[in-house]
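Subject: sequence -> structure tokens, single chain

Hey, anyone have a minute? Need the predicted structure for the following. Not urgent.
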Amino acid sequence: MAPNADNLSAVLYGIKDLRLEQRPIPVPSDNQVLLQMEVVGICGSDVHYYIGGRCGPFIVEKPMVIGHEASGTVVKTGKNVKHLKPGDRVAIEPGVPCRSCQYCKTGSYNLCPDVFFCATPPDDGNLSRYYVHDADFCFKLPENMSLEEGALMEPLSVGVHACKRAGIEFGDVCLITGAGPIGLVTLLAAKAMGAVKVVITDVLSKKLEVAKELGADYTIKIERNMSEEDIIKKVVELLGQEPNKSFDCTGIESCIRICVAATAAKGCAVLVGMGKVEINLPLSKALAKEVDIRGIFRYANDYPTSIQMVQSGKINVKPLVTHHYTLEETLKAFNTAHTQEGNPIKVLIHANPNWKPS
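Reply:
Had a minute. Here:
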């Protein structure tokens, strides 16, 4: 490959300062693969970095290539790579841990303090023509899965991980606050794992309509005049009981409070969304009911499960995709994700210049 070949990349310099520029094509090490990037989704964290220059404790302090929800095609492999070959289509798990700390060794590599994670400052992401990644965090896509579905394995893995943390099993009754992309993939995972009734809340009717199409049994549109008690009462009324598994997928304090307070005795409330550093919670209610409150951070060992669920047909992620853009249209894509014009759910950017709309 010529050293001057096109490697157009989307680089975030600061707040609302996202530029397209050429970068050198990287060279894979012995355990890496060089990828022709195909599809990169825009995540809520990407929008936070673009609009505010930070997401939680992570702050953009130097130019950073954006993007981490991705799929690609293998172009070249390092000499130690045995399970992949040029031409293979892969879903890219964006976090590569150190592999040697106690968290990595015990299977919780998502908690590794030295993890490299695409587009989390100071680590570059993969919204570019070409990108190198550790081969063991690239998962070959089955023939019946598209590259678009491959890019969606990242958000789906969040939902799968959340449901594993909750211990979802057949017969569970669930509440999900927030019908954005993460709330919707949590819905998909919960239903696939055996939840029999799920109610999901949001402020936007359009998102609730999609949730219904994806399998939600009940939806609640949150109105300004509704109190937390009103919402909890409506949840119980619709489900016929308190939910035994609840998920907050917003990070908004009021939603987290509802999630915790609504959960049945001996149930589990999982906090998926990341919001303010400090929030007020109704802990006395949770303590009196012995409710388990659990947090999640990304995912660990969940990509294979997510791929198998889509491959088998237990989960269909295609309805999540609402918008398509080329790499040259990155600014337009981010504007759509930020303004929510056109009711986007998942906005995809196609990095391969040969991509044509279907």
